[in-house]
Amino acid sequence: MGPLAAGLALAGCGHALPPLPGFAPATWRADTYGCQGRRLALLPNLLKAREKLYLTRADDINALLGQPDEEELREGTEKVYIYYLVPGPQCEPGHRRSAAPCLRLHFGPLGTVTEILVDPTAKMAQ
């Protein structure tokens, strides 16, 4: 298989994300770094639909949740998107890394969601 064919094959992996009942993506996207404190209230409805998020492509996650507040690159082509849930040090100028509760979406080598993690402190704050 040539490089073009391999690229086309990988582009077809994953699935488009259907609408998530009760989740307000525009509100989530507008709450950059979680500084307005609105994301935590949206989290329960997002987590109710967590099964729909698995195998979703990064581009579709970006369309739903916006660009991540932070991105970690892992081995190979794996990466993690981080979305802060509540205000914290990340809201100060420079947006430094914070230990504030966050949602972490792990993407595997095919560029699709493989794991969804929420800080335990975020669950307690709901």
How would you summarize this macromolecular structure in one to three sentences?
The protein has 126 residues and is of the alpha+beta class. The protein has helices at 3-11, 25-30, 39-48, 50-53, 58-65, 120-125, and strands spanning 70-73, 79-84, 102-107, 113-118. This is Lipoprotein SmpA/OmlA domain-containing protein.
Describe this structure in words.
This protein has helices spanning 3-11, 25-30, 39-48, 50-53, 58-65, 120-125, and strands at residues 70-73, 79-84, 102-107, 113-118. With 126 residues, it is of the alpha+beta class. It has one domain (25-118): Beta-lactamase Inhibitory Protein, Chain:B, domain 1 (2-Layer Sandwich). The chain is globular. The N and C termini lie far apart (49 Å). Mean pLDDT is 85; it is low at 1-12.
Number of helices: 6
Query: What quaternary form is this?
Result: single chain
Strand order of the largest sheet: 1-2-3-4
CATH class: Alpha Beta
Low-pLDDT residue intervals, each spanning 5 or more residues: 1-12
Q: Measured on Cα atoms, how large is the radius of gyration?
A: 15 Å
Question: How would you state the average pLDDT, rounded?
Answer: 85
Please provide the count of β strands.
4
